[in-house]
Amino acid sequence: MTKRRHYLREVVPPGPTAWADAEKAVRRLANQVDERKHPKTSATVNQLLDQHFELLTLERSTMDTYVRYADKHIRPFIGRASVGSLDAGVFDSLYAELRRCRDHCDRSAYIEHRTERAHECDPRCRPHVCTPLSASTIRQVHFVLSGALKRAVRWRWLTTNPITEAEPPPAPRPSPRPPSAQEAARILAEAWKDPDWGLLVWIAMVTGLRRGELCGIRWRHVDLDTGVLALERSIGQRSGQTWEKDTKTHQQRRIALDPETIELLTEYRDRCANRAGELGLELAQDAFLFSLAPDGSTHLLPDSVSQRYGKLAKRLGIHTSIHKLRHYSATELIAAGVDVRTVAGRLGHAGGGTTTLRVYAAWVSESDQRAATSLFSRMPARPLQPRSPLRQPKYPYEKLAIAILDEIAAGRFAVGAFLPGQKTLATERGVAVGTAHRAMDLLREAGFVEVRPGHGFRVVARPEAAAPIRVAQPLPPASPASRAEGAGNASSRTLLNLELRLGTTTLSRFMAEANPSDAGELRGLLTDAVRRVAGDADVSLYELDLRDASGLLIGTFVATRPA
């Protein structure tokens, strides 16, 4: 490395055994020379990195990233240090500095100018604020050093790799933040103002392609007859230079397209061919799918695609990037029940789905919960248990609840009136306060009273008005004739606020005009509501709360299976 002889020296202290110790030192040093394992080689970290990068085989953009990390974060600190002097403390100190400030300032105040050229300062030139380097970037710095030092061990520059004792920051947990369905709809609606740009955003949503892969698609990769998109190449960009390369995982993949996307691509190809024909050009089969050139001879720049999408999202007030559309496609597929291996194949994840599971674990869990709900909807129906305390009382709070219901039915407490407080009620009835509290909770669960904060329990329904709504016998589906007859009776029909529940979980709320005493019509409303949220699920598992226009609970409708 240095083109100079390297002398090994060791000082033996004086004493009666100095001669014997000197002979041992000579043998030890000679053995190190013979095995070329002396740990104190004079090669520096800079020399090791230069040799390492010359022999390293990586994709161009990855290599540029590693070299940039080495030039900015490694060489300024330990570049001149001898490779043999490195230990865990050196690396831990380096990582601590990277966590302090990514610009490696000397802790003195200065102004960060928007450009290094001569200019007049504006609000973009602001005082420097130390920002730590991200944990993922520090780990990449660690990987660069680890690879170089492994090579030094193979070259016998070192006996062991000292970086194995260092502690880089832990890998951050993946946290993809895809746009919501509403945000995706807004983004797509804004993008469709330019049909060509709208198609690019559409393709990104339905396929989950990376931006470089989007720019690298050629018309020969699109088979409109079979509806298959073949991903073979990608566009790389770094420091103003672009080049065509393999995909990120160096594997080709084929993605099936839906009929709507095939129709959009067919219309887009006709537009491109017409534009080229108007200029006397021809759209070649090898032309790029997305191009600013009329004949498709040039590709879009990945950075330009990101910038245009970022400006679109900023106009809509949505904090996102075009890479998040890849997360959107993955999460929608997983939520729809598509298996992880298929999702991994469409996204181009290596490892048979390991990366997909690691990144999208939260959505896989959500999909599993939906699967559990689907299974529950197909389980045999359990016997219906009345929620009302109108049964043989067994406990004191049940007896108290029935006594209060009798007084409500007798008119002592009208609908809308407030019941006495629990302490007052306990004193009047000669029961404990806890018994009164449980009785009121039972009435609330049955739908006869409601809690008004600061006022207490208010009566919302009388027993004779709420009881007929609960159906305990099988009901036939409502026929069109019965519905038409009910619709003609305007005096019995009213606008109802309806709430569909599964157990204690509210699934949907909606309004409908119906006759609250027509069981057939109520069953039809329940069936339609269940189909909207759960498909062909068993309607006997669901309950439909009926409230009037003011929000007062009329009752709860439950339909059992026909015998």
Write the layout of secondary structure elements.
Layout: H1 18-35, H2 45-55, H3 60-78, H4 88-100, E1 111-112, E2 126-127, H5 135-154, H6 181-191, H7 195-207, H8 211-215, E3 222-223, E4 228-231, E5 233-238, E6 241-246, E7 253-256, H9 259-278, H10 302-316, H11 324-335, H12 340-347, H13 354-359, H14 361-377, H15 396-410, H16 422-429, H17 433-446, E8 449-452, E9 456-459, H18 463-466, H19 480-488, E10 494-502, E11 505-514, H20 519-534, E12 543-547, E13 553-557
Helix pairs in contact: 2-3, 2-5, 3-5, 6-7, 7-9, 7-11, 11-12, 15-17, 16-17
Overall description:
The protein has helices at residues 18-35, 45-55, 60-78, 88-100, 135-154, 181-191, 195-207, 211-215, 259-278, 302-316, 324-335, 340-347, 354-359, 361-377, 396-410, 422-429, 433-446, 463-466, 480-488, 519-534; strands spanning 111-112, 126-127, 222-223, 228-231, 233-238, 241-246, 253-256, 449-452, 456-459, 494-502, 505-514, 543-547, 553-557. It has 563 residues and is of the alpha+beta class. It has four domains: 45-165, Tyrosine recombinase, N-terminal domain (DNA polymerase, domain 1), CATH 1.10.150; 181-372, Intergrase catalytic core (hpI Integrase, Chain A, Orthogonal Bundle), CATH 1.10.443; 396-463, Winged helix-like DNA-binding domain superfamily/Winged helix DNA-binding domain (Arc Repressor Mutant, subunit A), CATH 1.10.10.10; 470-557, no CATH class. Strands 11-10-12-13 form a four-stranded antiparallel β-sheet, covered by helices on one side. Strands 3-4-7 form a three-stranded antiparallel β-sheet, with no helix packed on it. Helix 2 crosses helix 5, helix 15 (396-410) crosses helix 17 and helix 16 (422-429) crosses helix 17 (433-446).
